[in-house]
């Protein structure tokens, strides 16, 4: 049975490469294409490349015994293709895994081109249950920018309207336009290497920046925008309106970033992270916004060190569409009560974040491969980070469902007796990670035995 993967972002290529590794024929569809010499793009994408990262270039923490680290460790043990490529294209980012986004996309394209079991089709899919002589398994991995036509098709198939929030993109500046005399390099609490540029602010500079931000003119909202932001990725101007110190306890938090030149902790700090190995550009960490470009230039140049910044990309907003997974999906990411097998993966399935999207793509590829071989998939255990993430999106209250990143709150808690005995949170997390990895290894042995090429 052939597998059809729809979407060439992160989850789609991961699903396709995973299913091919399990010996399955895969058709990979991507609507972004070059037509008559002109690229057909989405409102947020700049290329037609697979795996283009439109927001940050970070796949989050690599600090041992953190939830993002645990999820990536499970993915490495499951031989995630895209995580391997992320490791190979990593740029210095302290204790985080960040990638050279151009090289990362290039490597994904090369991996797909080198896989004889994958056929790429540069066209839009608008029907999820087409009449076909050959039975087909579909994996919908169209991400936050699912086309209007396919969105309507998903609504038709599910019989239920799906939800939407709006994500923002952080600005990027040229490295040689940063005044290095006004900044210092450091990682928070000196964890990892000092790869982040830190722009320190005293109280007067912070107040001046905040006043300008609050007075800045927002970008014009399109008719289809409701500006229902994801709480974990709020624009800085939205945060600023919640109180004068909100940014100082959020993306501009100075804690753990002592200035080595003064020996003191600044009033506020703006951090910049490398975009690529050449270190010729940096993105403003957590500075997603929905301001007019001219306003962004004016306000962001009030940041010490960025007075003459040249912007390679301004912040912007884009739609993020996702289904109400608790009402629609089973634990194998499969659409319930569907006449033909349809699986969902990536952000459209209700997870948030690059790593989480790749992880669900890996699982969808594994589950689809099992179905293609005439077997019922073995769900990843609840005790794992992967299983906890899937358990959340398939068991949350449908009435208040919102996408989630991986956190320890999603994992199975320790037994009450053990929680009382172990007061130290780090030790509790270490035990949870140890148990999760053991559970994953057992599941992977049962899932991959004699099936992986």
Task: Summarize this entry quickly.
By secondary structure, the chain is an alpha+beta fold. It has helices at 11-21, 67-77, 81-88, 101-113, 148-158, 203-215, 236-240, 293-300, 325-328, 354-372, 385-395, 416-421, 425-448, and strands spanning 2-6, 26-29, 33-35, 38-40, 58-61, 90-91, 96-99, 118-121, 136-140, 163-169, 172-174, 184-185, 197-201, 268-274, 281-284, 311-313, 316-322, 342-344.
Question: Care to describe what's here?
Answer:
The chain is an alpha+beta fold. The chain has helices at 11-21, 67-77, 81-88, 101-113, 148-158, 203-215, 236-240, 293-300, 325-328, 354-372, 385-395, 416-421, 425-448; strands spanning 2-6, 26-29, 33-35, 38-40, 58-61, 90-91, 96-99, 118-121, 136-140, 163-169, 172-174, 184-185, 197-201, 268-274, 281-284, 311-313, 316-322, 342-344. It folds into 2 domains: 2-162 and 324-448, FAD/NAD(P)-binding domain (3-Layer(bba) Sandwich); 168-319, Elongation Factor Tu (Ef-tu), domain 3 (Beta Barrel), CATH 2.40.30. It has 13 helices and 18 strands. Strands 12-13-14-15-11-16 form a 6-stranded antiparallel beta sheet. The longest helix has 24 residues, at 425-448.
What features would you highlight for this structure?
FAD/NAD(P)-binding domain, six-stranded antiparallel sheet, globular, 453 residues, alpha+beta, 2 domains, five-stranded parallel sheet, Elongation Factor Tu (Ef-tu), domain 3, 18 strands
């Amino acid at each position: 049975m052939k597998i059809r993967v729809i979407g060439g972002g992160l989850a789609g290529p991961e699903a396709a490469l995973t299913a091919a590794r399990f010996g399955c024929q895969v058709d990979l569809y991507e609507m972004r294409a070059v037509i008559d010499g002109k690229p057909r793009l989405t409102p947020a994408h700049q290329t037609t490349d697979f795996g283009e990262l439109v927001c940050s270039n970070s796949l989050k923490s690599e600090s041992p015994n953190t939830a993002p680290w645990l999820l990536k460790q499970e993915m490495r043990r499951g031989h995630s293709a895209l995580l391997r490529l992320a490791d190979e294209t990593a740029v210095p980012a302290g204790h985080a895994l960040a990638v050279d986004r151009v090289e990362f996309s290039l490597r994904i394209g090369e991996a797909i081109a080198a896989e004889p079991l994958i056929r790429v089709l540069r066209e839009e899919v608008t029907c999820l249950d087409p009449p076909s002589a050959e039975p087909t398994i579909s994996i919908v991995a169209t991400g936050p920018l699912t086309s209007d036509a396919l969105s309507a098709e998903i609504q038709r198939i599910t019989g239920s309207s799906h939800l939407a929030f709006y994500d923002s993109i952080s600005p990027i500046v040229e490295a040689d336009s940063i005044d290095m005399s006004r900044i210092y390099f450091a990682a928070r609490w000196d964890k990892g290497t000092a790869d982040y540029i830190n722009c320190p602010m005293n109280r007067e500079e912070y107040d001046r920046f905040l006043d300008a931000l609050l007075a800045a003119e927002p970008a014009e909202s399109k008719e289809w925008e409701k500006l229902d932001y994801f709480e974990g990725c709020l624009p800085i101007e939205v945060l600023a309106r919640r109180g004068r110190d909100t940014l100082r306890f959020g993306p501009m938090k100075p804690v753990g970033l002592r200035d080595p030149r003064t020996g003191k902790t600044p009033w506020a700090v703006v951090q910049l992270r490398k975009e690529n190995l050449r270190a010729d550009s940096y993105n403003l960490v957590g500075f997603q916004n929905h301001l007019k470009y001219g306003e962004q230039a004016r306000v962001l140049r009030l940041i010490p060190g960025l007075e003459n910044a040249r912007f390679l990309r301004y912040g912007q907003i884009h739609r993020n569409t996702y289904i109400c997974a608790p009402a629609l999906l089973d634990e194998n990411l499969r659409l319930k009560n569907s006449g033909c097998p349809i699986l969902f993966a990536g952000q459209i399935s209700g997870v948030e974040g690059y790593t989480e999207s790749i992880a669900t793509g890996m699982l969808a590829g594994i589950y689809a491969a099992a179905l293609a071989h005439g077997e019922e998939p073995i769900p990843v255990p609840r005790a794992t980070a992967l299983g906890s993430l899937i358990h959340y999106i398939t068991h949350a209250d449908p009435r208040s469902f919102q996408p989630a990143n991986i956190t320890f709150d999603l994992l199975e808690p320790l037994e009450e007796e053990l929680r009382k005995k172990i007061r130290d949170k780090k030790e509790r997390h270490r035990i949870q990670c140890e148990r999760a990895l053991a559970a994953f290894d057992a599941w992977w042995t049962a899932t991959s035995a004699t099936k992986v090429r």
